Amino acid sequence: MSDIGSVLREEIQRLARRVSRQADRRLKRDVVRMKHQIAELNRQVDALRRDNAKLVADFRERLAAPPVADAGQVEGARLSPRLIRSRRKRLGLSREAFARLLGVSAGAVLAWEGGRSKPRAAARAALVAVRALGRREAHWRLEAMDGKPRRPEAAKAR
Description:
434 Repressor (Amino-terminal Domain), disordered C terminus, mainly alpha, single chain
């Protein structure tokens, strides 16, 4: 005859296995559900990264293009050598950087500022458009033209 202690021990073990199997099934179901959710979230992150890369590339292309003003603004605009020089200095740019921003040569900027020549139509439109740029945007455009990403530590120092 078996004693009561061994019978109780076997019954407790049987009930414990049953309860643990039920809990195990629930946990396995939850793990599978979470793996599916993680896979879906990873697909969404990949799609967002692709979209972000396209948007950043488009933004860089737009920044890298020389700024252009519409014909109405260009027609009535006054551009003197002193105004060109003061705009360049207000943006904090060298002649070479200013020329790159406008899509012309540094010699052309030197000639405009010296009063030896006047800007042609395309350069005139770019000069009028540059009036609307601030120092930060001008530097962003130059960095986009150079293909260099903006350094975060440089932004904090400014």
